[in-house]
Write a structure and sequence with these properties.
With 238 residues, this protein is of the alpha+beta class. It contains five helices and 14 strands.
């Protein structure tokens, strides 16, 4: 599952973390990529959002802060997992001076007898961030290409499918919407989505279940979540 949670702040006002947790639980995901996750900020009531959502959903939580000292706390990506988490890492991505830092959060998971690399990312936004998004996508591609394990990358790329950052990553990874879904998979704005900027991408070690990829409405965030079912192929059948 991929979900930009808008810092857990409901678009209707107030903190909507409990609603976000309900929406995650309703989808029954095994692994979740979360973007725009606060920890200790004033605006979100000083809560540790990754820990709260992990506890509320019964999933293990990993946090990857990229912006420090923001509103009294931190801001970044998170991963929730039903599987044991063996290792974690957070790779800093290229940025322009005086812009928000971004990172690539990795969790190495134990799935049965196999090891899987799961990544969460949120690329820079806005027209002024177009050039740096390309550099960030290239940096992400370099990391995922060196993974020794079956790989899934999920995130808010702030790029439509035909734009260069998304095209760069889709050179090396397969697109769950393209191969396991129907329709355009639009995710923003939530109330009347017109653009697709949220993705779940995977390598040839996985096969998507036909028509499993869905875009899920949210009663709190300004993004719709993306959910898909991927089957880990037996070794030697990739």
């Amino acid at each position: 599952m991929q979900f930009n949670i808008r810092a857990g702040i409901s678009r209707y006002g107030g903190i909507g973390l409990a609603r976000i947790a309900e929406e995650i639980r309703a989808a029954h995901p095994d692994v979740v990529s979360l973007n725009e996750v606060d920890s200790g900020t004033i605006r979100s009531g000083r809560s540790d959002e990754a820990a709260f959502l992990g506890q509320a959903t019964g999933l293990r939580a990993v946090y990857g802060p990229n912006l420090f000292g923001y509103d009294g706390g931190r801001f970044g990506n998170a991963i929730l997992s039903r599987f044991p988490i063996r290792e974690t890492g957070n790779t800093r991505l290229p940025r322009r001076a005086h812009t928000e830092p971004r990172g690539l959060l990795e969790a190495t998971l134990r799935v049965g007898s196999r090891t899987v690399s799961f990544y969460s990312v949120h690329l820079s936004q806005g027209g002024r961030g177009a050039a740096v998004r390309v550099r960030q996508a290239e940096a992400v591609a370099r990391v995922v290409r060196t993974s020794a394990h079956p790989t899934i990358l999920a995130g808010d790329l702030n790029s439509r499918p035909g734009e260069l950052p998304a095209r760069i990553l889709r050179q090396y990874l397969l697109d769950a919407q393209q191969y396991g879904g129907r329709g355009p998979g639009l995710t923003v704005p939530e109330a009347d989505p017109r653009s697709r900027i949220d993705y779940i991408l995977y390598d040839n070690d996985f096969a998507p279940v036909r028509d499993s990829t869905q875009v899920l409405p949210s009663g709190s965030s300004d993004h719709r979540a993306v959910w898909t079912e991927l089957v880990l192929r037996p070794k030697g059948q990739c």
